[in-house]
Write a structure and sequence with these properties.
This protein has 18 helices and eleven strands. The chain is α+β, with helices and mostly antiparallel strands. The strands form three sheets. It has a five-stranded mixed barrel.
Amino acid sequence: MPSYRAPVEDVTFLLNDVLGIRRYDNLPGFSDASDDVIEALLNEGGKLAGNVFAPANLAGDREGCTRNDDGSVTTPKGFKKAYQAHVEGGWNGLSVPEEYGGQGLPHVLNTAISEFASGANLALAMYPGLTQGAIAALLVHGNEEQKQAYIPKMVEGTWTGTMNLTEPHCGTDLGLLKTKAVPNGDGSYSLSGTKIFISAGEHDLSENIIHLVIARIEGAPAGTKGISLFVVPKFLVNEDGSVGERNAVSCGSIEHKMGIHGNSTCVMNYDGAKGWLVGAENKGLAAMFVMMNEARLAVGVQGLGQSEVAYQNAVAYAKDRLQGRALTGAKEPGKSADPIIVHPDVRRTLMGIRAFNEAARALALWTALQSDIAHRSQDAKERQAADDLLGLLTPVVKGVLTDKGFANAVEAQQMFGGHGYIEEWGMSQFVRDARIAMIYEGANGVQAMDLIGRKLPKDGGRAMMGFLGEVQTFVKDHGEDEQLKAFTGPLQAALNDLQGATMWLMQNAMAKPDNAGAGATDYMHLLGLVALGYMWGRIAKAALAAKAEGKDAERMEAKLVTGRFFAERMLPETALRLARIKTGSDATMALAAEAF
């Protein structure tokens, strides 16, 4: 049976030594997150993930969710108990403002806890994860009455939340949606339509489910300009805040999926369901994007979580499985064979996953920290710089971490040989679960196009120039440090490739947009590699400082070796990405559609 251990020590090192979280004590909520509080939160969150969420993962995959004849949905055995433990720990409100029952702590801590939960049991973690997104949208765009009516209960965990976008004919192009909203004359609306792929759409974990639904008010403009956002509770809420009568929204069926079987992904039918407008009429897309951007970052963390749990189990197996002899002579002469971890190709695989995981974790936390700065700083210039980075990195975190998370799950599965293909070992579940993260909340090709088409040129390229400047400054400041040259040298070469790709797109994409489309995914991964290389530079700097102080020398040396592997074996991929981008779109677009 697979196991999971939350990487508490690594997160602690990243927060304290690499990101320097204490430097932000001037921001609201950070001073409350003292070192003792952070240590307690990470340890308790790690225990919840490893001891409660993880044991329910394999069984939840096998059992899945059940839709009953009355349209209700039963989650797998063990899920209710695990979710209740999550609720009792107050984890839903970790970074929610105190006025709505939350703890007001930094979002970066919530991101760390989310990785633990996603690594331990992705299907289960999605229920509170989606609630977090619904809370975020209501905090920004809901009126005070809506905030008071819904957020405290969702913080408590007695109510959960969803986002309802996709329709059978309408995925990424939300302008095609058909769900309609008709005013009732009393401030409410009657919603009718069908939504598909709605994660956590119906279940038995909470007493009420608060759906955030996009629809078109009768007479609204066509396309995305006519989209409005509505809050539609499963049960209507009485004036005293108690649960009232059932609303006209129901689960028509549960999707039969490749993975995340423990999450109830539903077809949702709205048959004149009563809902209330969130924000302004026809401005729903902007409101929904708050939740979508929150979700995109969270999905990136899901990719990392699956990569980490797959890695942990692959390492355990590689240390135990006896097969063949080391090329340099027997390492376990008293046994019939050596453990497979002695073989260079096995090491190559495991080192590649490990090197990604540690840098990806740093990138996810650094990005979350930008969100905290953008929302909490009193300095307008600081807020703008953080918001620029957050916007630029969101598609990268979502796209790169999930692409690599899935690939790493497959690589980890390979370590098991034939046993990796057998369900009882659990590795196939990690592969199946990781696959969805590349698709939902905007398929990764869409993330790449968002990066190229929107984020890169926004504000005259200000965000990209800020990122390039920050990385270049790091290389310049530490380029003469002999101990860091193994990191700064390859990082400079990768940065040159990124600058070259950016210039090529500026010169060749305006006149021929297909050049941008054909190179978008390569550009996203090129930027991701540079961001991960920058994280390794910062990790190495912190590890060297810790070693010099005599702190945890063996673990710090392991980080330096792992980072060197990334710099030597993985970062040079930027040259390949640049070469692909420069080929343009001619061969990609040459064939007529009929020729395929």
